Amino acid sequence: xxxxxxxxxxxxxxxxxxxxxxxxxxxxxxxxxxxxxxxxxxxxxxxxxxxxxxxxxxxxxxxxxxxxxxxxxxxxxxxxxxxxxxxxxxxxxxxxxxxxxxxxxxxxxxxxx
Length: 113
What we know:
Layout: H1 2-7, H2 9-12, H3 38-44, H4 46-49, H5 55-70, H6 83-90, H7 97-112
């Protein structure tokens, strides 16, 4: 995916792995979609929300990322992101990403128990 190579691969590497201690992996990102707030979170992280690509391309990229790096974690009722939805979420980028991420991961863990 051209936009991944151009805008994401520098930090998330070719295969979506983490950059140790700095950038979380894209692998298993679909698990965020199983908890409230997770869908918005995936678009509100600064690297996504502040991307220079338009809402249409960004929706396409996020949907590609999820299918490429986290298909097995997508909820059975997963609906692909739309440009309109991405446009809404990205206008409110997160400031404290780590705090929100930790909260969402705790909610994911509760569901898995």
